[in-house]
Design goal:
The protein has helices at 60-67, 90-95, 113-117, 136-149, 166-179, 196-211, 223-229, 252-259, and strands at residues 11-12, 22-31, 34-44, 49-54, 75-80, 83-84, 98-102, 124-126, 132-134, 184-188, 215-219, 232-237, 240-246. The strands form three sheets. A seven-stranded mixed sheet has the order 1-13-12-4-11-10-7, with helices on both faces. The longest helix has 16 residues, at 196-211. The mean pLDDT is 91. It has eight helices and 13 strands. It has 260 residues and is an alpha/beta fold. It starts with 10 loop residues before the first strand and ends with a helix. Helix 4 packs across helix 5 (166-179) and helix 5 (166-179) packs parallel to helix 6 (196-211). It folds into two domains: 4-97 and 183-259, Rossmann fold, CATH 3.40.50; 109-181, no CATH class. It is 30% helix and 27% strand. The structure holds adenosine-5'-diphosphate and magnesium ion. Magnesium ion binds next to helix 1.
């Protein structure tokens, strides 16, 4: 069998500026015998929307899992705002301002909107005795303010997340990222299983966040969703980056051809 991957000639016309928010060089990742990332360079500029595309198994999720601290690379370096970063866990990524929204977002369905909003980052209040207790009032108030900020008017902070639609859950996750002043939002197939209306809302959020200077890395199978909102398109195939160009230099038809 011929190695088709060897025949792919990468088209790379975008290079990082002097001050990208994320820059990775030479990333390698193996899962046992599977070479999931093969010497991948990747970057994202401040306030940029990067559309990340590729067939199933191309390595997209592996790349973003490394950036969000779910996995660590076997080789290669990551620089966040110019500093060498060792992203050893999701809490490290969050501290660096990187928030990730998956298809099934990291939410606990049985818990309330307010609890999910502050999960892992609960605010404390201190009484006279000096003990810290979770400030539930603040959680309720600020979660509702955060949701209003992204144009979501949900029933109330105590509503369990399981009562929300998929699109509303994505909205809560996006509002949460905004509240904690995330600098980079990574969305891995966030629009799968969403209605057209809900999908458009998620796409609108990404555009709004860009206006606020937030960087987004948006993964989707739907190239028609990715193309209009992206500033730049990065395509992966078989663990390699095969395309990295300004959006205007590639059409949806060309993207389809490259990744299939
Ligand atoms: N946890 C894992 N264990 C073993 N193999 C994995 C794991 N995650 C991904 N892979 C493999 O790594 C390759 C890249 O997968 P992935 O990054 O999920 O691709 P994509 O998100 O582009 O579909 C695939 O061959 C996949 O089967
Ligand atoms: Mg994936």
């Amino acid at each position: 069998m011929s190695d088709i991957a060897a025949e792919i000639v990468p088209v790379i016309t975008s290079r990082p500026s002097a001050d990208p928010i994320i820059r990775c060089t030479g990333l390698q990742k193996w899962y046992g015998a599977v070479h999931a990332l093969k010497n991948v360079d990747f970057h994202a500029e401040r306030g940029e929307v990067v559309g990340l595309v590729g067939d199933n198994g191309a390595g997209k999720s592996t790349l973003i899992k490394i950036l969000s601290g779910v996995h660590t690379q076997d080789q290669g370096r990551i620089f966040i705002e110019g500093k060498d970063a060792s992203i050893t866990g999701p809490e490290v990524a969050m501290r660096l301002g990187i928030e990730t929204i998956y298809q099934y977002t990291a939410m606990v369905p049985e818990m309330s909107i307010a609890q999910n909003f502050f999960i892992g980052r609960e605010p404390l209040k201190f009484g006279r005795a000096g003990f810290g207790v979770v400030d539930r009032k603040k959680m309720r108030r600020e979660s509702m303010e955060g949701l209003k900020g992204v144009g979501l008017h949900l029933r109330g902070p105590d509503t369990p997340v399981k009562a929300l639609s998929g699109g509303q859950r994505q909205g809560v996750a996006i509002a949460r990222a905004m509240h904690f002043r995330s600098k980079v939002l990574i969305l891995d197939e966030p629009t799968n299983h969403l209605s057209v209306k809900e999908t458009n809302k998620v796409l609108d959020h990404v555009v709004e966040l860009k206006a606020q200077g937030v960087t987004s890395i948006f993964i989707s199978h739907n190239l028609h969703h990715i193309h209009p909102i992206s500033d730049r398109i990065v395509a992966m195939a078989r663990g390699q980056k095969v395309l990295d160009v300004p959006r205007d230099e590639v059409s949806v038809e060309e993207m389809t051809r490259i990744i299939s």
